[in-house]
Specification:
The protein is an alpha+beta fold and 309 residues long. Helices cover 37% and strands 26% of the residues. The protein has two domains: 163 residues, Ribosomal Protein S5, domain 2, CATH 3.30.230.10; 129 residues, GHMP kinase, C-terminal domain (Alpha-Beta Plaits, 2-Layer Sandwich). A hairpin with a 2-residue loop joins β5 and β6. The chain starts with a strand and ends with a strand.
């Protein structure tokens, strides 16, 4: 029998303009999943976290990700997972991705590391496909597994590029206590966009990548402007436009929706500003009778990893 315990970090998908093709890794928040592998042929998932998970194993995002890995492995095993710590579903900071990432990373280690981390992203995408209603995407599972900032240049085949993270890349994330499902957030998006809008978005994506490559956090901030998705999703977040005015006035360089929401994130050039902005975000939601969890950290270069404790 082989036992492995893994932490996989939460993530911010899209980073504003990079819908489904960019994501970054948060520090200090994520899922902890352990796995036991032995002789046999079955899959079990036990939930010991404080978060309610589906009783039906077929509705758990871990299941399709693990089955994809085991199919590629080509040998049968008895695999038991225990979810010890869980990001709340619908938080907008990669809840489903962290579970899928932790599970496939732990199982890969337990099996002797037959697959590269990039291949693990492909397996973990199957969990995202389940939760989003049939659309596999890697802007959460990519950074959760690999760490740092990840660009998905293409999906057919999957082409992943890790981008450098500026030293002064500070992030504040507010997770208000409201629920926005990934599926619902996708259903409100337009099926077509005007060419003029697309050109603006292409310029912003290019500026974002250039800013990261140059280590220019101010250029990154200017480029974090989403003209395609945000106009439709911000309706789910109370006082979104007013909050942006507040955080920019306090020194933040940008504010956007994290993933499908309802979390919002800001970019700042130093931790003092990031801490101040985090409190402004907390106060904003409290004024509307909404509690929130606040995370203030630098973007992490470290993705999923084995825990020794």
């Amino acid at each position: 029998m082989s036992k492995v315990r893994v932490f996989a970090p939460g993530t911010v998908a899209n980073m504003g303009c990079g819908f489904d093709v960019m994501g970054m890794t948060l520090d200090g928040v994520g899922d902890v999943v352990s796995v036991e592998v032995s002789e046999g042929d079955d899959l079990e998932i036990e939930n010991r976290s404080h978060v309610e998970l589906p009783d039906d194993i077929e509705k758990n995002v871990i299941t399709p990700a693990v089955r994809a890995l085991m199919a590629a492995y080509g040998e049968k095993r008895m695999v038991k997972f225990v979810v010890e710590k869980k990001i709340s579903p619908g938080s907008g900071i990669g809840s489903s991705a962290a579970s899928s990432a932790a599970a496939v990373y732990a199982l890969n280690v337990a099996l002797g590391r037959p697959f590269t981390d990039e291949r693990l992203v492909e397996f973990a995408m199957e969990g995202e496909k389940l939760i989003s209603g049939g659309t596999p995407h890697a802007d959460n599972v990519g950074p959760s597994l690999l760490g740092g900032v990840v660009l998905l240049r293409g999906y057919e085949p999957l082409d992943i590029v890790r981008l450098p993270v500026p030293d002064n890349f500070c992030c504040s994330v507010a997770h208000p206590e409201i629920m926005v499902s990934t599926r619902m957030a996708r259903e409100v998006l337009p099926k077509e966009i005007p060419l003029r809008t697309a050109v603006k978005q292409w310029g912003n994506v290019a500026g974002l990548v250039a800013g990261l490559a140059l280590g220019d956090v101010h250029l990154v901030g200017r480029a974090m402007c989403d003209v395609v998705v945000e106009p439709y999703r911000k309706r789910f977040i109370p006082g979104f436009d007013e909050l942006r005015v507040k955080v920019l006035a306090a020194g933040a360089l940008a504010m956007n929706i994290s993933g499908a929401g309802p979390s919002v994130f800001t970019l700042s050039a130093d931790m003092d500003v990031a801490e101040r902005v985090g409190e402004i975000m907390r106060e904003h939601f409290a004024e509307q009778g909404i509690g929130s969890d606040i995370y203030v950290c630098k973007v992490s270069n470290q993705g999923a990893r084995v825990l020794n404790d």
